[in-house]
Design brief:
- The structure holds 2 protein chains of 2 kinds.
- Chain A is an all-alpha fold.
- Chain A has a domain of 221 residues.
- Chain A has 13 helices and 2 strands, in the order αααααβααααβαααα.
- A two-stranded antiparallel sheet of chain A has the order 1-2.
- In chain A, helix 6 runs antiparallel to helix 9.
- Chain A is globular and about 55 Å long.
- Chain A starts with 5 loop residues before the first helix and ends in a 22-residue tail after the last helix.
- Chain B has 11 helices and 2 strands.
- In chain B, helix 3 runs antiparallel to helix 8.
- The longest helix of chain B has 32 residues.
- Chain B starts with a helix and ends in an 11-residue tail after the last helix.
- Classes of the chains: A mainly alpha, B mainly alpha.
- The interface between A and B is large, with 48 and 42 residues.
Chain lengths: 343, 297
Amino acid sequence: MIMMSTRQWALTGLGVAILMVLPLLLHNFWLVNIMGRAMVYGVVALSLTFLAHYGGFISLAQTMVAGIAGYAVAMMAPTAIPLSTMAMPYALAIPLAVLAATLAGALVGLIAVNTREIYLLMITLALAVGFSLFAQSNITWFRGYEGIRNIVGPEVFGLPFRTPMVFYYSALIVAVLMYLLVLYVVRTPFGLVLQAIRDSNRRTAAIGFNVALHRIAAFALAGFIAGWGGVLITFYNIGITPSSIGLWATVAVLIMAVIGGLGHPLGAFIGALIYALMDTFASTIIGHDRFNTLIGLVFLSIVLLSPDGVWGIGERLKATLQGKGSKPAVEEAAGNETADRGS
Amino acid sequence: MSLQFFLIVTLNGLTLASLYFIVASGFSLIFGLMRTVNMAHGSLYMVGAYVGFAVFDPLYASNTWGSQAWLIAIVAGILAAALLGLFMQVAFLGWMQGQELRQALVTIGLSIIIADQLLARFGGNPFQFFAPDMLFGPVQVPFIGRYPVFRLFQVGLAVAVGIGLWLLLNKTKLGIIVRAGVDDRQMLAACGVNVPLVAATVFALGAGLAGLGGVIGATAQPMALGVDARFLLMSLVVVIVGGMGSIGGTALGAVLIGLAEQWGQVLFPTYSVILTFVIMASVLAVWPQGLLGRKPV
């Protein structure tokens, strides 16, 4: 059972309802390239937020894991150019791709099982960059720089996946399900143990829980979430290339999660929306060529001024308005999770 | 496989390892004292190369300075990277000492901005330094035949940097302070040492090594945008394998990774990156602190 108060359920329902009727109000461009994009990348960022907030693992391998699902679905897609010998219907390819991402997530968790905090960040980053370099240099499977094209996605009710409505609602369904999944899991015994590991590794082990196994399971679950995002991202981009899983793509997902706020699963989607908006409209402000400088400056200011992101700013505003002083959430900020957490 | 071929691939691996060592030792030095994971280290490498080349290009064309152009470029590259590193430490990282993840995020933000600004200022065209005549061309090496003299110079330079760092850390007052700081920063500050000043010096030194690596690397191979990711990756892998904060470990890690990369490309060309990661994962499984890293107290 997902533990939310009646008010939170009402707010969630209201939010979903608004998103459901958005297609009536928004132009197709906004629907697909802003909202849809924010939701599919938000799912990948959500997998990072899940690991970071509830497990204390800032993993930079989530884009890579999403990319594994993307490459898997591209390799098995019936429409792929170039078509591979193991092409199969999308109805099979998509679940297999998500399974591949889940296993890849578990493998990342296994490799990094003894490392924490900054070491974990370094190792997952090394894995991510290494995988993209591998995809870039491997022709047999990954088709090198070119990548795999024309991954248009399945037809839904006879409509191509690229139809704005179809894409939007698919993204919405996946995003909402993954969001609820995270809220559900963190209240299960597994989720509670995970948070115990975050707070004190040693004590959790001393009580008798298998810390390593819980960590690997958390990474596998994060891989499952990121996998769904990766499949949809590949449909959104109509294909996949090594640069879509490279260092900058990895950093982009980190930026989304951090700008939105690592303190709450919704932060991932807020951050992805802000990123999509900036990416789209930066050209009118400073010219698209210098988008990276702009996003870098925004990211830097968020990390310097409000490490818990936009979500944290909102929480503090709320607290100030309610006259409770301004303390909550700040302590949980990613930047403050330093070495004192039970090593 | 002939002996000559074996030796050439191994020597290629060692010359690559030399470059990795020069760059990664700066990364390791910064990490050792300040526990700061400098995600902008690859960017500092690029800054060294680009600024070095901006100085080198006009000088090389002139008659009076042509022969010294390369040496001046090295100095310029080191200085540019060191000054930028100093600025990063003083303006951003110093006051959030101890918040390791936040520091890493800050350096990621900085690396995005630096890479984009370099692109804006210098454009994306590849370039390469010309080594001075003394280091240019091939030389006869026993059992191998003709081998680029610059690559041998690279190995010599890496050895010199390694010895220099060892002497600095083990035989000078600054070295004593740095090693004390690695063990206990607060106690060091209580002894009256200006720790922020030491930290800034060490950061500048580490960044300068990245800048030196930039000029050397861009002399050995053409330089293009995107190498920041590669050298950040290699610095990470080398110190993860060798052990963080240990100069000897960095050297060992660099040799392992350099040899693995070259031999991997010979034995199974498109899968060579995998070998690097198999090494990294196996080392982590057995020695989570790296081969020569110290266990956390």
